[in-house]
Amino acid sequence: MGLYGYCFPSMDCSFGDGLQNFSFVDINNDSGCEGYGDFVSISTDVEQGETYNMSFTTGYGSQYFRVWIDFNDDLVYSIDELVIDNPVLATGSAAGTYTGDLDVTIPSDAPLGSHLMRVKTNWNAPVPDDACEETQYGEVEDYSINIVESLGVQILDDSLVDIFPNPSNGLFLSLIHISEPTRQEAISYAVFCLK
After folding, report:
1. Could you tell me which of 148, 114, 121, 147 has the C-alpha nearest to residue 135?
2. Which of 174, 116, 140, 181 is nearest to 8 (CA)?
3. Cβ within 8 Å of residue 73, ≥6 positions away
4. What span, in angstroms and rounded, lies between the C-alpha atoms of 140 and 142?
5. Sheet harboring 171-178: ordered strands across?
6. What is the mean pLDDT of the chain?
7. 25 φψ region: left (φ > 0), alpha (ψ -120 to 50), beta (else)
8. Per-residue pLDDT tens for 22-71?
């Protein structure tokens, strides 16, 4: 076991395999050939239930990628914690610079707080299920993410909104009724609008 209690497999990235850049929300990390890259000091916030773009740049083709988030903080990257599952970038290509991206959705019930995220590559074959397994060519990088509650605007049920008068001659009043689980009574908000 390595730093923080996690394994840190180190692989051969000397031909360009692995990651030259990894980007995810506020993370935008240019890196060299580390074999294993400890980047847990680099972090970003993500919201429960939201979808974000993740980008990979590699220096050699036929790179497979897996990304885990240790949601339960048990020091194991398990299959049910995969958020990216073996897409391949630049199939059949040799040395060069190749960038690909895809969307990642954070589960709506993801545990709040800081968690470690592992990005792992493998050349010419899928990344193994075991996040600790070393393959000949590829790279591993670990980062941190902080999961926060969704701050998005929720669409209200239109049965909770009353508009007076209807029809309107340009001046109307809207009453919005919102029930909170922790309160006995609904809260009403009045909105006045002029034409």
Report:
1. 121
2. 140
3. 111, 115, 116
4. 7
5. 161-164, 171-178, 187-194
6. 87
7. left
8. 999 999 999 999 999 999 999 999 999 999 999 999 999 999 999 999 99
CA dihedral 7, 60, 89, 39 (to 10 degrees): 30
Backbone angles phi, psi at 5, to 5 degrees: 90, -5
Angstrom distance (rounded) from CA 76 to CA 10:
17
Q: 């070393």: which residue's tokens?
A: 134
Among 43, 48, 190, 179, smallest CA distance to 106 is for: 48
pLDDT of residue 150: 84
Beta bridge partners of 60: 95
Positive/negative CA dihedral, 42, 44, 49, 50 = negative
Asked if 69 contacts 117 with a C-beta cutoff of 8 angstroms, the reply is: yes
Q: What is the pLDDT of residues 128-146, one digit of tens each?
A: 999 999 999 999 999 999 9
- Token pair recorded at residue 118: 């592992």
Please check whether residue 103 is in contact with residue 52, taking contact to mean a CB–CB distance below 8 angstroms. Answer: yes
Mean pLDDT of 74-85: 97
Closest CA to 122 of 6, 24, 14, 11: 11
pLDDT digits (tens, 9 = 90+) for 94-127: 999 999 999 999 999 999 999 999 999 999 999 9
pTM: 0.77
